[in-house]
Amino acid sequence: MTLEQTRREYRYGRLSRESLLNCPFAQFQLWLDQACNSPIKDPTAMTVATVDARNRPWHRAVLLKGFDKRGFVFYTNLGSDKARQIAENPYVSLHFPWFFLDRQVSVGGRAEKVSRAEVLKYFFNRPRESQLAAWASKQSSRLSSRQALEAQFMAMKEKFAQGEVPTPDFWGGFRVMPEEFQFWQGGDRRLHDRYRYRLDEQGGNWEITQLAP
Ligand SMILES: Cc1cc2nc3c(=O)[nH]c(=O)nc-3n(C[C@H](O)[C@H](O)[C@H](O)COP(=O)(O)O)c2cc1C
Predict the structure, then answer these.
(1) What is the DSSP string of 31-85?
(2) Successive 10-residue mean pLDDT values, the chain, 213 residues
(3) What are the tens digits of pLDDT across the range 63-118?
(4) What are the residue ranges spanned by the domains of the chain?
(5) How many Cβ atoms sit within 10 Å of the Cβ of residue 108?
(6) Is the minimum distance from the CB of 76 to ligand 1 under 6 angstroms?
(7) Which helix (H) or strand (E) holds 176?
């Protein structure tokens, strides 16, 4: 099978204006719940696209750790490329690749740091090894070898052998407040269903538009 021959049909279902909920947060929650109840391996994984100081975009996967009307939350190293890019330009795009359900959701919005209290609460509840890994990895910086990373992990394990692992100052989270959502459901004959919710000028109402797929 060549790449050119690789294709499949999208027959999971349809998305109609009648079935679409008026509130994009409710529509997203519905699809998120369905993704979480499906065999998708990482249903809460999303990509975050940022733009660097030279206007070059980049994206990477992170895990969604909170979702409500205030936005989408993820946690990361505040010295990482993504965090530095967000500090320069807070406008980001998220993408949920739920291909198993013939779906994707794209979101555009503005990222803001989550409060320190939220960060502390989340970090405290992470498994100990994840906490130590956060200390051990100077995310996005040059690494001399795998052994150097393992050694750093062991050093942190020793350093914090007693009691709780504290939250590193360089570790935090972002909340993306959406300005636009797009819901895409694959259809047969490549006639997919696609709807956009966009906040109006006043920022009070969501305008729903059907888009050509
Ligand atoms: C499924 C998956 C989930 C991930 N979750 C996170 C996460 O929640 N936070 C994070 O900082 N990196 C996460 N990563 C690693 C990032 O994709 C990325 O490699 C890292 O954050 C460095 O990105 P940057 O150098 O562009 O800032 C995840 C990777 C995968 C594949």
Answers:
(1) HHHHHHTSS-S-TTEEEEEEE-TTS-EEEEEEE--EEETTEEEEEEETTSHHHHH
(2) 94 94 98 98 98 97 98 98 98 98 98 98 97 97 97 98 97 98 96 96 92 97
(3) 999 999 999 999 999 999 999 999 999 999 999 999 999 999 999 999 999 999 99
(4) 24-126+169-210
(5) 16
(6) yes
(7) strand 171-185
Ligand 1 atom closest to the Cα of residue 74 is 8
Tell me the best of 40, 59, 63, 89 to mutate to test the pocket of ligand 1, counting ligand atoms within 8 Å of each CB and taking the most: 63
Q: Is the CB of 85 under 6 A from ligand 1?
A: no
Question: Using CA atoms, how far apart are residues 51 and 107, in angstroms rounded to an integer?
Answer: 15
137 CB near ligand 1 (under 6 Å): no
Question: Packing angle between helix 146-159 and helix 128-136, nearest 10 degrees?
Answer: 120
Amino acid at 159: K
- Which is the closest atom of ligand 1 to the Cα of 45? 1
Q: Which CATH fold would you assign to the domain 24-126+169-210?
A: Pnp Oxidase; Chain A (2.30.110)
